[in-house]
Design brief:
about 300 residues; alpha/beta; seven-stranded mixed sheet; six-stranded parallel sheet; about 35% helix; globular
């Protein structure tokens, strides 16, 4: 006999669950009441028919695949009889697609409700999560000009770089620190521009350090180029935008002169800070998050909860 709890259980198929993000999502979902993970036979994980059968059983399909494979998986889901399963995609394939809802729940009022109602949600990138969180409220409230020449400097632990990068660092074959994306065409730039509200393409300089996880995204500003905004205005606007008690919070800096990237590891939180020196007319906005938490699997589980009302 089926219990009421059984009727509330939602089946989730993670297509690509053997990767870093997939494994993290699976582990986090183990603590979510009402979530049942259904898994494909590892020997058949590339078998189209086997994947289709899993999709037919699922209430929600989570894609942890490269972009081209994610597009193929969505086409497969779309071709299923009836409405088919809802889809959350962790790749970059659909992040700027107008038919998909962007899965940053705190991005603006009503975003969480849009995610909850959507059949197709694109999970955000880790770097854009931090940058958009800092920039969008300031542009929306008129403190930061849309054409401001933004520079985004960011550092992440090596776990955000995929299997090959992880293996190199853990084998001691990678440098202790390096800049990358110096062709100015990083895959996160399109979503960063679309959802930040900027009209001018920012300079985005990512880097990776010899530590597993944790991220800092920093944005330097000249206050005299803003629309009369002070550092207190920047902090107040961010604090009012995100409120109290959520996963994104604004932290006073007081006398802080240093910040390290690993303090939020193992959490789904993100901290925003405004460092400033009024005498010099300069400020630096900083977002700190776990690139595997709010920057990836944590955001995915947050979106899964919203989409399935868990």
């Amino acid at each position: 006999m089926t219990s009421p709890q059984d009727n509330q259980t939602k089946k989730i198929f993670i297509d690509g669950e053997a990767g870093t993000t997939g494994l993290e999502i699976r582990e986090k979902l183990g603590n979510v009441a009402g979530a049942q993970i259904i898994s494909i036979d590892p020997a058949r994980r590339k078998d189209a028919q086997a994947r289709r059968e899993m999709m037919e059983q699922a209430d929600l399909v989570v894609l942890c695949l490269p972009d081209d494979a994610a597009r193929e998986a969505v086409a497969m889901a779309d071709a299923l009889p009836g409405k088919g399963p809802r889809v959350l995609d962790a790749s970059t394939a659909f992040r700027t697609d107008h038919a998909w809802v962007y899965g940053f729940a705190e991005m603006e009022p009503g975003q969480a409700q849009m995610i909850a109602a959507a059949d197709r949600v694109a999970n955000p990138g880790c770097y854009p999560t931090g940058a958009i969180a800092l920039i969008r409220p300031l542009v929306a409230k008129g403190l930061l000009p849309e054409d401001y020449p933004i520079t985004i400097n960011a550092v992440s632990g090596y776990s955000g770089g995929g299997r090959q990068m992880i293996e190199k660092f853990e084998a001691g074959e990678a440098p202790s620190f390096e800049l990358y994306g110096l062709n100015f065409s990083h895959k996160h730039l399109p979503e960063l521009m679309k959802y930040s509200g900027l009209a001018r393409r920012p300079l985005f300089v990512p880097s990776v350090g010899d530590y597993r996880q944790g991220m800092l995204v920093s944005i330097p500003l000249h206050l005299d180029l803003l629309r009369g905004a002070t550092a207190a205005d920047l902090q107040g606007t961010l604090a009012a935008w995100y409120g109290d008690g959520g996963l994104v919070r604004v932290v006073p800096t007081q006398d802080e002169t240093r910040i390290e990237p690993e303090a939020l590891n193992g959490t789904d939180q993100m901290e925003l800070r405004v460092y400033a020196h009024p005498e010099h007319g300069q400020a630096v906005l900083v977002a700190r998050l776990d690139n595997l938490g709010k920057g990836a699997s944590g955001a995915a589980v947050q979106n899964i909860r919203l989409m399935l009302d868990l």
